[in-house]
Description:
Blueprint: H1 2-27, H2 33-60, H3 64-70, H4 72-83, H5 92-104, H6 109-132, H7 143-154, H8 167-202
Helix pairs in contact: 1-2, 1-6, 2-4, 4-5, 5-6, 6-7, 6-8
Amino acid sequence: MSYERRTGWLLDVAAVAFLAVYAVPILQPDLSPAWVRVCEVASWAVWGLFGADYFVRLTLAEDRRRFVRKNVVDLAVIVLPLLRPMRLVRLLPVLARMQHAGMSLRGRATTYVVAGAALLVLVASLAVLDAERGSTEANITSYGDALWWAAATVTTVGYGDRFPTTGEGRIVGVALMLGGITIVGTVTAALASWFVEEQQKEAP
C-alpha cells in the first residue's frame, strides 16, 4: 500500500522517540516534575499518532476483518492504554514497529535476530525496572540489574540471581520469554526457507 510506504519511516521515528521519552524518567528518577510531564505528554502524543495511522489503514483496507486479524498488536496499541492506562502497555508502539520490521527483514535472519533481540532486551529491561523499582522486595533496583536479568531471560539461561517480584514485572518476564522464542522461531523458519529455495535452484 502506497500510504504505508510513505508513512512507515515516520512511524519508525515516532517509535524511537516514544522509547526515548519512556526511558528518560526511568533512567533519571530524580528528573524534575516538569520534564516528567513533558515525557508523559509526548508518549501519549505518539500513542495518538499510532491510533490515527491504524484507523487510516483500516479505512483504506479492502477487507477490514482480515486487516484487524493481521494487525492485532497494532489494535492493542490503541485499546489497552484506554482500558488500563499503566505505563507498561504504552511500550506497545515500539513492539508493534518491531513486528513490522521483522516482516520487512524477512530473509535477512542475522540482521533481524541481532536487531530484534537487542530491542527486545532494551524494552524489557526498562519495563521491568519501572515495575520493580517501587517494590520493597525488589532485587532489580538498577538499570544494570535489569539488563542482566533481561539478557539472562531472553537467552533462556535464567541464573536466578535477579528476578521480578511484582505482578507487572512477571508479565514483562513472560513477554520476554515469548519474544525470545518468537525471534528464534522466525530466524529458524527464515533459514529453513532459504535452504529449501537453494535446494530447489540446484535441483535438475
